[in-house]
Design a protein that fits this description.
The protein is built from eight helices and 14 strands. With 348 residues, the protein is α/β, with parallel strands linked by helices. The protein has two domains: 132 residues, 2-Layer Sandwich (VC0802-like), CATH 3.30.2130.30; 182 residues, Vaccinia Virus protein VP39 (Rossmann fold, 3-Layer(aba) Sandwich). It has a seven-stranded mixed sheet with strand order 2-3-1-4-7-6-5. A hairpin with a 3-residue loop joins β6 and β7. The longest helix has 18 residues. It starts with a strand and ends with a strand.
Length: 348
Amino acid sequence: MPTILVITDKGCEQACVLEIARWMKKETTIAEQIVTVDCSLEEGALLAFHLQTARRVLLQLTAPYTDSPGEPDPAVLGLIDGTFKAEGHSTGITQELVEQVGGWVHKQGKSVDLVNPQFIVYAIKTDKTYVGLDLVGKALEKREWRIMLSRRSLRATIAAAALLYADVQGDDVLVDPSGDDGTLAIEAALLLSKTSPLQFSTGLAYEKLTVPKTVPVREIEKISVFCENLRDVKAVRMNSKLAGVEKLLHSTKVPLDWLHTKVADVDKIVTYPVSSGKALPLKIVEKRNETLFEQAAEVLKKKGTITCICVKPEEFACAQKYKFKLLHTHPVWMGKSKLEIMTWEHDV
Protein backbone atom coordinates (compact mmCIF):
# COMPACT_ATOMS: atom_id res chain seq x y z
CA MET A 1 0.00 0.00 0.00
CA PRO A 2 1.36 3.49 -0.82
CA THR A 3 2.74 5.67 1.97
CA ILE A 4 1.52 9.27 2.15
CA LEU A 5 3.69 11.94 3.79
CA VAL A 6 1.86 15.01 5.06
CA ILE A 7 4.12 17.99 5.80
CA THR A 8 2.80 20.34 8.48
CA ASP A 9 3.93 23.38 10.42
CA LYS A 10 5.98 22.50 13.49
CA GLY A 11 3.60 21.85 16.37
CA CYS A 12 0.62 21.08 14.11
CA GLU A 13 1.36 17.38 13.66
CA GLN A 14 -1.27 16.23 16.18
CA ALA A 15 -3.84 18.59 14.65
CA CYS A 16 -3.13 16.97 11.28
CA VAL A 17 -3.76 13.54 12.82
CA LEU A 18 -7.08 14.81 14.17
CA GLU A 19 -7.96 16.14 10.72
CA ILE A 20 -7.07 12.90 8.95
CA ALA A 21 -9.33 11.06 11.42
CA ARG A 22 -12.25 13.19 10.19
CA TRP A 23 -11.75 11.68 6.74
CA MET A 24 -10.66 8.09 7.29
CA LYS A 25 -9.79 5.56 9.97
CA LYS A 26 -6.11 4.94 9.39
CA GLU A 27 -3.12 4.51 11.66
CA THR A 28 -0.74 7.46 11.54
CA THR A 29 2.87 8.00 12.57
CA ILE A 30 4.21 11.36 13.73
CA ALA A 31 7.69 12.82 13.30
CA GLU A 32 8.70 16.48 13.42
CA GLN A 33 6.60 18.26 10.76
CA ILE A 34 5.65 14.90 9.20
CA VAL A 35 2.55 12.75 9.53
CA THR A 36 2.76 9.39 7.75
CA VAL A 37 -0.28 7.35 6.74
CA ASP A 38 -0.54 4.20 4.64
CA CYS A 39 -3.54 4.36 2.33
CA SER A 40 -4.57 3.95 -1.29
CA LEU A 41 -3.53 6.46 -3.93
CA GLU A 42 -7.15 7.57 -4.23
CA GLU A 43 -7.33 8.16 -0.47
CA GLY A 44 -4.04 10.07 -0.66
CA ALA A 45 -5.51 12.28 -3.38
CA LEU A 46 -8.56 12.88 -1.17
CA LEU A 47 -6.31 14.00 1.67
CA ALA A 48 -4.29 16.21 -0.68
CA PHE A 49 -7.49 17.86 -1.88
CA HIS A 50 -8.98 18.50 1.56
CA LEU A 51 -6.37 18.70 4.33
CA GLN A 52 -6.18 22.23 5.70
CA THR A 53 -3.30 21.62 8.12
CA ALA A 54 -1.05 20.29 5.33
CA ARG A 55 1.69 22.34 3.70
CA ARG A 56 2.46 19.54 1.24
CA VAL A 57 1.06 16.06 0.64
CA LEU A 58 3.57 13.63 -0.86
CA LEU A 59 3.55 10.09 -2.16
CA GLN A 60 6.67 8.61 -0.56
CA LEU A 61 9.38 8.00 -3.17
CA THR A 62 12.13 6.56 -0.99
CA ALA A 63 12.36 5.53 2.64
CA PRO A 64 13.31 8.35 5.05
CA TYR A 65 17.09 8.59 5.38
CA THR A 66 19.79 10.26 7.44
CA ASP A 67 22.83 10.23 5.15
CA SER A 68 21.96 9.04 1.66
CA PRO A 69 18.70 7.81 0.08
CA GLY A 70 17.96 4.22 -0.73
CA GLU A 71 16.53 3.03 -4.00
CA PRO A 72 13.35 4.83 -5.11
CA ASP A 73 10.02 3.03 -5.34
CA PRO A 74 9.72 2.07 -9.03
CA ALA A 75 5.92 2.25 -8.85
CA VAL A 76 6.08 5.91 -7.75
CA LEU A 77 8.76 6.75 -10.30
CA GLY A 78 6.52 5.25 -12.95
CA LEU A 79 3.80 7.78 -12.10
CA ILE A 80 6.01 10.67 -13.28
CA ASP A 81 4.51 10.74 -16.73
CA GLY A 82 5.90 14.03 -17.99
CA THR A 83 8.33 16.77 -17.07
CA PHE A 84 9.45 17.25 -13.49
CA LYS A 85 11.58 19.30 -11.15
CA ALA A 86 12.87 18.85 -7.62
CA GLU A 87 12.10 21.25 -4.79
CA GLY A 88 12.95 21.37 -1.12
CA HIS A 89 12.56 23.52 1.96
CA SER A 90 16.22 24.61 1.69
CA THR A 91 18.66 25.27 -1.13
CA GLY A 92 21.06 22.57 0.03
CA ILE A 93 18.41 19.89 -0.01
CA THR A 94 17.10 21.02 -3.37
CA GLN A 95 20.51 20.80 -5.06
CA GLU A 96 21.26 17.43 -3.51
CA LEU A 97 17.85 16.19 -4.55
CA VAL A 98 18.11 17.48 -8.11
CA GLU A 99 21.30 15.53 -8.62
CA GLN A 100 19.97 12.34 -7.02
CA VAL A 101 16.46 12.35 -8.45
CA GLY A 102 17.70 13.54 -11.82
CA GLY A 103 19.59 10.29 -12.13
CA TRP A 104 16.57 8.23 -11.13
CA VAL A 105 14.14 9.92 -13.45
CA HIS A 106 16.59 10.18 -16.34
CA LYS A 107 16.54 6.40 -16.51
CA GLN A 108 12.78 6.69 -17.09
CA GLY A 109 13.35 8.95 -20.09
CA LYS A 110 11.82 12.03 -18.42
CA SER A 111 13.13 15.57 -18.67
CA VAL A 112 13.55 18.46 -16.22
CA ASP A 113 11.41 21.59 -16.56
CA LEU A 114 12.26 24.23 -13.96
CA VAL A 115 9.56 26.69 -15.10
CA ASN A 116 6.36 24.74 -15.65
CA PRO A 117 6.86 21.10 -14.63
CA GLN A 118 4.05 18.57 -14.71
CA PHE A 119 5.31 16.90 -11.54
CA ILE A 120 7.31 18.01 -8.50
CA VAL A 121 9.51 15.82 -6.34
CA TYR A 122 9.78 17.46 -2.93
CA ALA A 123 12.12 16.93 0.02
CA ILE A 124 12.17 18.14 3.60
CA LYS A 125 14.87 17.56 6.19
CA THR A 126 13.96 17.43 9.88
CA ASP A 127 15.16 14.47 11.97
CA LYS A 128 15.57 12.65 8.65
CA THR A 129 15.17 13.56 4.99
CA TYR A 130 11.78 12.72 3.51
CA VAL A 131 11.29 12.60 -0.26
CA GLY A 132 8.06 12.19 -2.20
CA LEU A 133 6.06 12.98 -5.30
CA ASP A 134 3.92 16.06 -4.59
CA LEU A 135 0.27 15.10 -5.10
CA VAL A 136 -0.83 18.71 -5.58
CA GLY A 137 2.21 20.40 -7.06
CA LYS A 138 2.27 23.57 -4.97
CA ALA A 139 2.47 24.93 -1.43
CA LEU A 140 -0.91 24.30 0.19
CA GLU A 141 -0.64 26.98 2.89
CA LYS A 142 -0.93 29.68 0.22
CA ARG A 143 -4.70 29.90 -0.10
CA GLU A 144 -5.89 31.42 -3.38
CA TRP A 145 -8.77 33.22 -1.66
CA ARG A 146 -6.49 35.31 0.56
CA ILE A 147 -6.65 38.59 -1.35
CA MET A 148 -7.21 41.11 1.45
CA LEU A 149 -4.68 40.61 4.24
CA SER A 150 -3.50 42.58 7.26
CA ARG A 151 -0.17 43.11 8.99
CA ARG A 152 -1.03 40.36 11.45
CA SER A 153 -2.64 37.87 9.07
CA LEU A 154 -2.51 34.33 10.38
CA ARG A 155 -1.19 31.47 8.25
CA ALA A 156 -4.19 29.41 7.14
CA THR A 157 -2.64 26.10 8.24
CA ILE A 158 -2.12 27.47 11.77
CA ALA A 159 -5.74 28.65 11.85
CA ALA A 160 -6.93 25.18 10.81
CA ALA A 161 -4.78 23.59 13.52
CA ALA A 162 -6.27 25.90 16.17
CA LEU A 163 -9.78 24.88 15.13
CA LEU A 164 -8.89 21.19 15.36
CA TYR A 165 -7.23 21.62 18.76
CA ALA A 166 -10.40 23.45 19.82
CA ASP A 167 -12.42 20.41 18.61
CA VAL A 168 -14.93 22.49 16.65
CA GLN A 169 -17.91 20.54 15.28
CA GLY A 170 -20.53 21.31 12.63
CA ASP A 171 -23.34 21.83 15.12
CA ASP A 172 -21.34 24.19 17.35
CA VAL A 173 -22.38 27.80 17.77
CA LEU A 174 -18.99 29.23 16.86
CA VAL A 175 -17.80 32.83 17.19
CA ASP A 176 -14.64 34.75 16.32
CA PRO A 177 -14.86 38.20 17.95
CA SER A 178 -11.55 39.42 16.44
CA GLY A 179 -12.21 38.80 12.76
CA ASP A 180 -9.19 40.51 11.17
CA ASP A 181 -9.10 39.21 7.55
CA GLY A 182 -11.45 36.29 8.27
CA THR A 183 -8.88 33.51 8.09
CA LEU A 184 -10.08 31.66 11.20
CA ALA A 185 -13.77 31.87 10.31
CA ILE A 186 -13.18 30.88 6.68
CA GLU A 187 -11.00 27.92 7.65
CA ALA A 188 -13.73 26.87 10.10
CA ALA A 189 -16.38 27.05 7.39
CA LEU A 190 -14.24 24.95 5.03
CA LEU A 191 -13.39 22.41 7.73
CA LEU A 192 -16.89 21.93 9.09
CA SER A 193 -18.69 21.90 5.73
CA LYS A 194 -16.02 19.57 4.24
CA THR A 195 -15.35 22.07 1.46
CA SER A 196 -11.89 21.86 -0.07
CA PRO A 197 -9.69 24.98 -0.04
CA LEU A 198 -8.67 23.80 -3.54
CA GLN A 199 -12.22 23.63 -4.87
CA PHE A 200 -11.57 26.28 -7.53
CA SER A 201 -8.00 25.18 -8.38
CA THR A 202 -7.06 23.49 -11.65
CA GLY A 203 -4.04 21.66 -13.00
CA LEU A 204 -3.35 19.80 -9.76
CA ALA A 205 -0.84 16.96 -9.94
CA TYR A 206 -3.14 14.27 -8.50
CA GLU A 207 -5.58 14.86 -11.37
CA LYS A 208 -2.99 13.22 -13.61
CA LEU A 209 -2.85 10.22 -11.28
CA THR A 210 -6.31 9.65 -9.85
CA VAL A 211 -9.41 11.64 -8.94
CA PRO A 212 -10.68 11.76 -5.33
CA LYS A 213 -14.24 10.87 -4.54
CA THR A 214 -16.74 13.72 -4.62
CA VAL A 215 -17.54 14.76 -1.06
CA PRO A 216 -20.95 16.36 -0.47
CA VAL A 217 -20.88 19.67 1.35
CA ARG A 218 -22.14 19.29 4.90
CA GLU A 219 -24.67 21.69 6.43
CA ILE A 220 -23.35 23.57 9.45
CA GLU A 221 -24.39 26.27 11.87
CA LYS A 222 -23.58 29.71 10.50
CA ILE A 223 -20.32 31.03 11.97
CA SER A 224 -20.30 34.53 13.48
CA VAL A 225 -17.25 36.68 12.85
CA PHE A 226 -17.14 40.19 14.32
CA CYS A 227 -14.76 43.01 13.44
CA GLU A 228 -14.12 46.38 15.04
CA ASN A 229 -13.69 48.31 11.79
CA LEU A 230 -15.28 48.34 8.36
CA ARG A 231 -12.01 47.54 6.57
CA ASP A 232 -11.88 44.15 8.31
CA VAL A 233 -15.55 43.48 7.60
CA LYS A 234 -14.87 44.13 3.90
CA ALA A 235 -11.85 41.79 4.02
CA VAL A 236 -13.87 38.98 5.63
CA ARG A 237 -16.66 39.30 3.09
CA MET A 238 -14.32 39.50 0.09
CA ASN A 239 -12.12 36.59 1.18
CA SER A 240 -15.05 34.38 2.15
CA LYS A 241 -16.71 35.00 -1.21
CA LEU A 242 -13.55 33.98 -3.05
CA ALA A 243 -13.33 30.88 -0.84
CA GLY A 244 -16.94 30.01 -1.70
CA VAL A 245 -18.17 30.02 1.91
CA GLU A 246 -19.71 33.49 2.26
CA LYS A 247 -23.15 31.99 2.94
CA LEU A 248 -21.75 30.08 5.92
CA LEU A 249 -20.57 33.22 7.73
CA HIS A 250 -22.27 36.12 9.43
CA SER A 251 -19.86 39.06 9.49
CA THR A 252 -20.49 42.52 10.85
CA LYS A 253 -18.88 45.41 12.76
CA VAL A 254 -19.22 44.92 16.51
CA PRO A 255 -17.01 46.39 19.28
CA LEU A 256 -15.58 43.71 21.55
CA ASP A 257 -17.45 44.95 24.63
CA TRP A 258 -20.76 44.64 22.75
CA LEU A 259 -20.35 40.95 22.01
CA HIS A 260 -23.05 39.99 24.53
CA THR A 261 -25.61 42.02 22.58
CA LYS A 262 -25.11 39.93 19.41
CA VAL A 263 -24.74 36.30 20.51
CA ALA A 264 -25.72 33.97 23.32
CA ASP A 265 -25.44 30.26 24.18
CA VAL A 266 -22.14 30.01 22.31
CA ASP A 267 -20.38 26.63 22.30
CA LYS A 268 -16.92 27.78 21.28
CA ILE A 269 -14.98 30.98 20.73
CA VAL A 270 -11.85 30.68 18.59
CA THR A 271 -9.89 33.85 17.99
CA TYR A 272 -6.51 35.48 17.34
CA PRO A 273 -6.28 38.46 19.73
CA VAL A 274 -3.86 41.33 19.22
CA SER A 275 -0.64 41.35 21.23
CA SER A 276 1.40 44.20 22.68
CA GLY A 277 4.26 45.82 20.79
CA LYS A 278 5.73 49.14 19.79
CA ALA A 279 2.45 50.37 18.34
CA LEU A 280 0.18 48.87 21.03
CA PRO A 281 1.00 49.32 24.74
CA LEU A 282 0.72 46.38 27.13
CA LYS A 283 -1.92 48.14 29.26
CA ILE A 284 -4.28 48.44 26.28
CA VAL A 285 -3.81 44.78 25.36
CA GLU A 286 -4.40 43.63 28.93
CA LYS A 287 -7.60 45.68 29.05
CA ARG A 288 -8.77 44.15 25.74
CA ASN A 289 -8.10 40.65 27.05
CA GLU A 290 -10.04 41.44 30.22
CA THR A 291 -12.94 42.51 28.01
CA LEU A 292 -12.59 39.37 25.88
CA PHE A 293 -12.85 37.00 28.84
CA GLU A 294 -15.54 39.06 30.54
CA GLN A 295 -17.65 38.85 27.37
CA ALA A 296 -16.81 35.16 26.90
CA ALA A 297 -18.02 34.41 30.42
CA GLU A 298 -21.34 36.05 29.55
CA VAL A 299 -22.01 34.48 26.14
CA LEU A 300 -20.60 30.95 26.46
CA LYS A 301 -22.73 27.99 27.46
CA LYS A 302 -21.87 26.12 30.63
CA LYS A 303 -18.58 24.31 29.97
CA GLY A 304 -18.15 26.28 26.74
CA THR A 305 -14.59 26.94 25.62
CA ILE A 306 -12.50 29.78 24.31
CA THR A 307 -9.38 29.09 22.24
CA CYS A 308 -6.86 31.85 21.61
CA ILE A 309 -3.85 31.87 19.33
CA CYS A 310 -1.41 33.72 21.56
CA VAL A 311 1.77 35.52 20.63
CA LYS A 312 2.47 36.30 24.30
CA PRO A 313 0.68 33.81 26.60
CA GLU A 314 1.49 35.86 29.69
CA GLU A 315 -0.96 38.50 28.47
CA PHE A 316 -3.86 36.14 29.21
CA ALA A 317 -3.42 35.84 32.98
CA CYS A 318 -6.85 37.46 33.38
CA ALA A 319 -8.61 34.24 32.28
CA GLN A 320 -8.63 32.84 35.82
CA LYS A 321 -10.27 36.01 37.14
CA TYR A 322 -13.36 35.20 35.06
CA LYS A 323 -13.39 31.54 36.16
CA PHE A 324 -11.77 30.02 33.10
CA LYS A 325 -9.73 26.85 33.56
CA LEU A 326 -6.88 26.16 31.14
CA LEU A 327 -7.53 22.80 29.46
CA HIS A 328 -4.54 22.51 27.16
CA THR A 329 -1.92 24.45 25.26
CA HIS A 330 -0.14 23.62 22.03
CA PRO A 331 3.05 25.40 20.93
CA VAL A 332 3.18 25.91 17.15
CA TRP A 333 5.59 27.70 14.85
CA MET A 334 4.58 30.07 12.06
CA GLY A 335 7.92 30.15 10.32
CA LYS A 336 10.37 31.09 13.08
CA SER A 337 7.70 32.73 15.25
CA LYS A 338 6.44 30.65 18.16
CA LEU A 339 2.74 30.86 19.04
CA GLU A 340 0.66 29.13 21.71
CA ILE A 341 -2.79 27.74 20.97
CA MET A 342 -4.49 27.85 24.36
CA THR A 343 -7.95 26.54 25.25
CA TRP A 344 -9.87 27.44 28.41
CA GLU A 345 -13.17 26.07 29.68
CA HIS A 346 -15.64 28.30 31.50
CA ASP A 347 -15.40 26.58 34.86
CA VAL A 348 -18.87 27.29 36.25
